[in-house]
Amino acid sequence: MIGRATDFYTQLNERYPAYTRVFRFLLSGGTALGTDLVLLYLFTDIFGIWYLASAVAAFILAFGVSFMLHKFWTFGDHSREGIHMQMGIYFLVAVTNLVLNTLLVFLFVEWVTLHYLLAQIFASALIAIESFFIYHRFIFQKTTTI
């Protein structure tokens, strides 16, 4: 069964590489989000760490998961050369996106009068699109071909 799924994915990837890259991007981002939320819960509720310290620790660890998945799996950049520079730029993009997310949610709630959860969904979607192109064009561009 796993062999057939792998063969199917390989055929899709060969035929539609851009779509499978977007799929890998969303799956990698979802994995990083899940990592962040699970770690936040564990640090705060299980280990009794202050929730803000837990949030910072969870963000840092989830950042590592996100970077590694996007670099090596989503965009297929297996080079080790310049990895520290890539990680630094990736971190700046992540922090910028955090600020941008906060601003967009504020604007959607206060000016557009959306419910805060719907505002977060829209902000997340916009940031995901922006992030994909930044990662693809500027950070992991060596081996990508969209």
UniProtKB/TrEMBL annotation:
InterPro entries: GtrA_CellWall_Glycosyl, GtrA_DPMS_TM. GO terms for cellular component: plasma membrane. It is a multi-pass membrane protein. It is found in: Membrane. One of its GO terms (biological process) is polysaccharide biosynthetic process. Signal peptide: none annotated. This is GtrA/DPMS transmembrane domain-containing protein. The lineage of its organism: Bacteria, Candidatus Kaiseribacteriota.
